[in-house]
Amino acid sequence: MTNGKLNFDDFAISKPAKDPNRIESVAIIGAGVMGRGIAQTVSSAGMDVLLIDLTEDILKKSIGILEESLDREIQRWAMTKSDKKSILSRIKTSTDFNSIIGYDLVIEAVDEDFNLKKEIFKNLDTICDPKIVLVSNTSTLSLTEIAKFTKHPERIIGMHFISPVPKIPLVEVVRALKTSDETYQKVKKFGERLGKTVVEIYEYPGFVTTRVIVPLLNEAMYVLMEGVATAEGIDTAMKLGYNLPMGPLEMADSMGLDEVFNWMESLRVTLGDLKYRPCPILRKLVREGKLGKKTGEGFFKYDANNNKIKS
Fold this sequence. Notes:
By secondary structure, the chain is of the alpha/beta class. The chain folds into two domains: 25-202, NAD(P)-binding Rossmann-like Domain (Rossmann fold, 3-Layer(aba) Sandwich); 213-287, N-(1-d-carboxylethyl)-l-norvaline Dehydrogenase, domain 2 (Orthogonal Bundle), CATH 1.10.1040. The protein contains eleven helices and eight strands.
């Protein structure tokens, strides 16, 4: 009250200050299998998403695939139409790299190409506020080497999601040499908010999951090539014998045989170990464009809903 008169400012309700460590919006670079999966997961957790790629056609196709995937979840009674609408409403798309400005977190999810990732992070380091954490979804490449091309290496960190991102309850959070504790804690909380179990990883080629799974996939391919058993027989033996949700050959098909090939080559070169040398049958399938579920054929054939077609 001022001079006997009410001052309505006295009754104003102040808004709580925004927590600088809480992520509310995420920009994702790359609208492929991983980028699309991360976008769905982030949006499902209630955060706004910007999905960026080179062309409108790529983005339109990516959103179309996402819609089909959500429709299948509705058919399985795992999701409602309202859930689908809510998820899609929080995802925006753009071909303008600069449109990431203002987002709380940036995740790079492009192909495993060091030079491509290097250029992306050089640009991100220039246009993003120094307090914004920059994340790579790399499976095998060195985050420390990527961070060398930035002025703020302390904010560079890895989040290695596993496909299908919305369904796998794990994310490896990978610390580069100069990643700060503040950056790690911020990303750890973000990962947990996505409903993931976070495993802290100190950078080493292949981290944990890729390094351990690749020799298994490769050996299964050699067993197939040597005629020890059929693809179906190998997968059945491994599923039932070791209680795996799917066999190694179908698993490779799900990951994308081109991606698996790139992981093997990267680990072979980096670690110098012949156990990572890609099996010739994998080279043949990649050369023929039979990349697994995303092309409808790999070690097995698949229908439009990615269900394995029985031979």
